[in-house]
Design a protein that fits this description.
There is one protein chain. By secondary structure, this protein is α/β, with parallel strands linked by helices. It has one domain: Aldolase class I (TIM Barrel), CATH 3.20.20.70. Helices cover about 50% and strands about 15% of the residues. The protein is built from 13 helices and nine strands. Helix 4 packs parallel to helix 6, helix 5 packs across helix 6 and helix 10 packs across helix 12.
Length: about 270
Amino acid sequence: MAGRIDDIFARLRAEGRTALIPFVTAGYPSLKVTAEVVPALETAGASIVELGIPFSDPIADGPVIAASMHAALGAGVTPGAVFDIVSQLRRATRVGLVAMVSDSIVQRMGPQRFLADAAEAGFDGLIIPDLDLAGAPAVAELAAGHGMTLSLLIAPTTPDDRIERIVGLCSGFVYVLARAGITGERDATPDIAARVESVRRHTDLPIAVGFGISEPEHVSAVTELADAAIVGSAIVRRMGPDGEAVSAAADFARTLAAALTNRRRSDAQ
């Protein structure tokens, strides 16, 4: 049965449009801000919002996101607190909500309990960047049983046979890394053509590209080839605890959404 993420991408494809997926750290700079920024990002043009569940040793996250997670943890943000906020958001917004979460958190709570709680709260999907492929089928089955998607990461160095295994475990969309290394803002536009082509040989799932996507020009270039652009550090950096976090994130997301490739418009030109 199709869920919210599938419905979002199906609608966008039918309309010839692509998606903006902003990332924010849940609980940074406060849980109140998280509750306010998600609807603001939806209004600004986001189709899906990725909520990072704070973790003490962030996986592949650069200094901006790592610092935001440490700040959230210092303020006492727990997975349970994030689920409570998502429950509130689910009543206030129709945007897709995907949790970016370390497998360490999933295993500490227990996969069955974590996925059940996440689904009950209103999460539509999961991204587990450090999920071992050996354990991924069981998690994928649990996610499907709760009506949630599971997206795994494909790096620039991932060989073709491993790409085939990874996409076979994914649902909703495949997360393709634009660059090797850690997250963070970059000046150069990423070259993703060969990687997107190699992934498309193995799946019809939508492809979302993240890591280093930080300017409208990057979003435009990425969505010429992929179905969605994920932007994290450039948004989180604008959400410092200065009282303007929500408007700063929404204003920037609006400029990013304006740069999304409209395939019908492009085809007509």
